[in-house]
């Protein structure tokens, strides 16, 4: 059931084009991440901070105290496909502005939804270990990108997303689920490479985009405030389902691409085209 919301922002902002320069597209293609400022204005950000926070409160079932959880559990509260639960959240997730950026960065003719997720790192929550997202995804190409949308200004002490630039070239570590093992093994591997470890704060309205195979992590939240982030995972409009290579990919097939068939384009009711 939808919650009723007052729209205190200009709806047109979500669909206004955000034109990238060739230099920015080239940067993403080389490094497989990019941070872009002023994607959302303050009114829009504040509006969706409240809308998404309300939906997370409504959906959250975590009852285990923070200090009793494992590393993954301490990293964040994780809630999926909020767009199916609330029509106002859907406005953000279906933003042509953000989906258009994803399309430009990947140099594809369009994008469709894989799924969305809210990642709320609670006050004094732990690290998010090094990992590559596409370990979990039964997708037959690397034409995927995640928009990481902080719902507030995010200084270093809140644990913003960190990237190992251009690390999508590394094969070692791709077989690891997120956890203590991935943090240790990938950290050791990255130490002996020349890939730049990017640790920067996020301004309000700044969004990052990263590909499925680039390694990334986040530090702990050293503040009492929750670090609130919404993410949208996009895939090439022509993405096909591959034969799952692990139990997580098997799970993701039936959860995020229900009814899709191996070797065919993932065109299901919950994988709609978001751009053009």
From TrEMBL:
* Cofactor(s), by name: Fe(2+)
Q: Which UniProt keywords apply?
A: Dioxygenase, Oxidoreductase
| Record keyword Oxidoreductase present | yes
Gene Ontology terms for molecular function: 2-oxoglutarate-dependent dioxygenase activity; iron ion binding
Name the coiled-coil region(s).
Answer: none
Please name the InterPro entries in this protein's record: Phytyl_CoA_dOase-like
Q: Has keyword Transmembrane? A: no
PANTHER family according to UniProt: ECTOINE DIOXYGENASE, PHYTANOYL-COA DIOXYGENASE DOMAIN CONTAINING 1
This one is known as Phytanoyl-CoA dioxygenase family protein
Task: Give the species.
Answer: Flavobacterium agri
